[in-house]
Structure formats: structure tokens, C-alpha cells
Design brief:
- The longest helix is centred in the last third of the chain and has 16 residues.
- The chain is built from 12 helices and 13 strands.
- The protein has a domain of 202 residues: Rossmann fold, CATH 3.40.50.
- The strands form 3 sheets. It has a 6-stranded mixed β-sheet, sandwiched between helices. Strands 8-7-6-9 form a 4-stranded parallel β-sheet, sandwiched between helices.
- Helix 3 runs parallel beside helix 4 and helix 3 crosses helix 7.
- The chain has 405 residues and is an alpha/beta fold.
- Bound molecules: pyridoxal-5'-phosphate and zinc ion (ZN).
Length: 405
């Protein structure tokens, strides 16, 4: 790589809806047309980046990340999570070449850490003094913790029934936290109102700032690097706001444009039956989604009724010959335990949904079993202590255990 290549090759922001180009050197939200903005890089300059010997974090791809100065990087060691082969479970499901990108092993316990690390770093670098967001839990926890590391403030609102541990993470991080007796959309309205009195805070709601996608796209770079610079045939992703799916699609496009490889990876959006706007839109051939009336699922991270980036998710599925699948809560909870028994890995309900979806895709013939398939497990099962119903015998202290079962 030429010595003159900057730490980041970020050039500008672009609107994927109306094509507008915006200055990336100042704080930006969404396009004036309402669309999320995408970061664009000088990929001709970045293409020679030699990542092999670099530290095992997502910052190894710094040329295609937005942070301009190495000293502005806020890190808790995020990224380069394991890509685990799952031979036993793969064989059971009829997909022997099955892999899992395990985001359970990342700071804050969910892959929201990736978006938070890059988003908070860039916001602080551009002079933002506080971040504000509605959340279903994990994103608020991650952004509050990274904000604390950056020395900036955070204002978070989440539904009362969001996972309790994420409350504790926000409070421990010193966030200004509010619980809302409603959905994430209600929390969003409260945050928008509160921001009017906080001019030095940035609205970092999902896809309302451009850099969370950049953090999450590194999953795409890592999967390809960990497979020896080869893209898998299929990636399954538990889709709420769709940031990770849009990000992985963007990463594959960037790697193609840099001439690294020519990926033919099909992307699959997995949702829960209780909240399946993307699946419905995909099946109807629509370009945007419609919010369900009463969204509900135990997989809280994918309980997003109307993603702002729905058209980008649907575009990613269409451009990669992918598909969208919904599974029931019963199916995903069963898959969670089956996987733990087969492979010793306790995934979050969102990740488990993808394993349940594999069964559907194999039954329908969409997968023939010969593909190399990567499932994204987006967080650790340990963050959701109530998803496994536990019924175990208690014995007296001086008692005896029954014979072997
Ligand atoms: C937020 C979240 C998701 C959904 O991520 P998007 O990129 O918004 O679609 C999936 N799983 C977990 C554990 C999450 O916290
Ligand atoms: Zn626009």
C-alpha cells in the first residue's frame, strides 16, 4: 500500500434514494429526502490495504471506516469474533458446510458493539458531546457504554419490557435512561422531542446517522477474511432494522469494487412470525414494508415494525438473489436448545431464528445442502436469562441423587 494512503479513505456521503452527495467532514443525519445516507470511500486508494498482520479488531479495516485519525478510535476490543464450523448441527439440518459467526463474544454481549464503536468514535471526532437514541435494549446498552469510553453523554429510551440486563448496562454506564410504556416507536418520538432542548446531542437512532452501518459491515469483511478470502454461498441474518444486512451487502460490494473477489453470496433476512414486515414485503414484491399492527416476539432485537432502511434491505435481497423467511417463537426457542446440545454454543433468540429458518429453506429446496452457509449469531444467549424455561429437581442438602438417567 502506498505510504500516502490515509488512515481513512472516506470521501463523502451519498443518498441511495435520490443520489444526493453530502459533506462527510461535518455531522450529518439523514438526507433531506428522508433516506439514510451511505459512506463512500476512495476505494482505488484503499484496495491495497494489507490487513493480515493487524490487530484482531474491526479497526484492521480502518481504510474503509470513517474515522480520520487513529487517536479518535474508541475501542473495547470489538471485532474478529470466531467463525465456528458447526458440523454436528449442520449434518442434522442437512447443511453440512454450516458455519456461525459468533457475535456473542464481543464487548456488551451483542453485535451492536460494532455500530457503537464506529458511530461513537466518528461522532466524538466530529465534536458531538452527547448521543440520544430509542432502543429495544442492546443498541442502547452498547452506545451508552461506548459513549462512556469516549467521555460523552448518552440519553436512551427503551420499552419497559426490553431485556432487563440492558437497563443495567445503561445505568452502569451513567446514561440518562427512560423506560417507556410502549414500543420502540414511542421511545423514538420521546427522543425526538427531547433533542430539541439538547442542541449538542446527536440523534443516533437506527440509520439516522451514517456510521452504524460502517461498523456492522465489518462482519462481511471478517467472514470473507476468515474463510481465506472467499465469500460463502449464503448468509442468514436476523433482521430488525436490517443494519447488519445492509452493511454486509455494502462490504461485499466494496470488496468486489476493490477487485478482491467476486462474491455471489445470497443474503437471507430472517424474521419472527410476530413481526415480519420484510418477509411480507418480499413475498408481495414490494419495495417498502408496512408495519404490523401488534408486533411481538421473544427475539426482542428483531421486533422492529417499520425499518427506515426497508428499501435497502429489500434491494440487498433482490441484488443477491436472496430471500426472506419468518419462523415462530416456538421454532426459534427449540432451535436455541438444539444448537446448544449439538455444539455447546448458547446463542441469542435472534440468532436461533436463523437456525430455525435453515430448516424451512432446506425443506422448500431453496437450499440444496451443498452450499457453504454462514449464520450470524448476533449476541450471547446469556443476555436473555428468561428464554429457557428451566425445570430441574431440587434435592435436600443431605439427600441423594437418583440413579443415572
Ligand atoms: C438489534 C439486533 C438484531 C437486529 O439487527 P439489525 O441490524 O437492526 O437488523 C438482531 N439481533 C440482536 C441480538 C440485536 O440486538
Ligand atoms: Zn436523498
Amino acid at each position: 500500500m502506498p505510504e500516502s494512503t490515509p488512515f481513512s479513505t472516506l470521501s463523502h456521503l451519498e443518498c441511495p434514494k435520490c443520489g444526493a452527495q453530502l459533506d462527510a467532514a461535518v455531522v450529518q443525519g439523514t438526507c433531506s429526502c428522508g433516506s439514510p445516507l451511505l459512506a463512500r470511500y476512495d476505494l482505488a486508494a484503499a484496495r491495497g490495504m494489507a490487513v493480515a498482520g493487524r490487530e484482531a479488531t474491526l479497526w484492521r479495516y480502518h481504510e474503509v471506516l470513517p474515522v480520520a485519525s487513529p487517536s479518535a478510535v474508541i475501542s473495547l476490543g470489538e471485532g474478529m469474533t470466531p467463525l465456528l464450523p458447526l458440523p454436528v448441527h449442520g449434518k442434522r439440518l442437512g447443511v453440512p458446510d454450516l458455519w456461525m459467526k459468533d457475535e456473542g463474544l464481543i464487548p456488551t454481549g451483542s453485535f451492536k458493539a460494532r455500530g457503537a464503536a464506529v458511530g461513537v468514535s466518528r461522532a466524538a471526532e466530529l465534536g458531538v458531546r452527547g448521543i440520544a437514541m430509542p432502543t429495544n435494549g442492546n443498541a442502547g446498552a452498547a452506545w451508552a457504554l461506548y459513549a462512556a469510553r469516549a467521555g460523552i453523554r448518552s440519553l436512551i429510551a427503551m420499552p419497559v419490557d426490553a431485556p432487563v440486563i440492558t437497563r443495567a448496562e445503561c445505568v452502569a454506564a451513567g446514561a440518562e435512561l427512560y423506560l417507556v410504556d410502549g414500543l420502540i416507536s414511542h421511545a423514538g418520538a420521546l427522543i425526538r422531542e427531547a433533542l430539541k432542548q439538547r442542541p449538542d446531542y446527536q440523534d443516533v437512532s437506527t440509520l439516522k446517522e451514517p456510521y452504524r452501518i460502517e461498523g456492522k459491515k465489518t462482519m462481511g469483511y471478517e467472514i470473507v477474511e476468515q474463510l481465506g478470502m472467499r465469500a460463502p454461498d449464503v448468509i442468514l441474518y436476523p433482521t430488525g432494522g436490517g443494519v447488519g444486512l445492509i452493511g454486509i451487502h455494502k462490504a461485499l460490494d466494496e470488496m468486489r469494487e476493490m477487485g478482491w473477489l467476486n462474491p455471489e453470496t445470497r443474503l437471507v433476512a430472517v424474521q419472527a412470525e410476530g413481526c415480519r414486515p420484510i418477509v411480507d414485503a418480499w413475498q408481495a414484491g414490494a419495495t417498502e414494508s408496512v408495519a404490523p399492527a401488534a408486533p411481538t416476539t421473544v427475539a426482542f432485537g428483531i421486533n422492529v415494525p417499520k425499518p427506515l432502511g426497508d428499501f435497502l434491505i429489500l434491494r440487498a435481497l433482490a441484488e443477491t438473489s436472496g430471500t426472506a423467511v419468518a419462523v415462530t417463537d416456538e421454532e426459534l426457542l427449540a432451535a436455541q436448545q438444539e444448537l446448544a446440545r449439538d455444539e455447546g454454543t448458547f446463542v441469542c433468540p435472534e440468532g436461533a431464528a436463523c437456525f430455525a429458518a435453515l430448516v424451512r429453506l432446506r425443506e422448500s429446496g431453496w437450499l440444496n445442502g451443498g452450499e457453504r452457509v454462514v449464520v450470524l449469531n448476533t449476541g450471547t444467549g446469556v443476555k436473555y436469562p428468561d428464554t429457557v424455561r428451566v425445570s430441574v429437581p431440587t434435592v435436600p442438602a443431605d439427600g441423594a441423587l437418583p440413579g443415572p438417567r
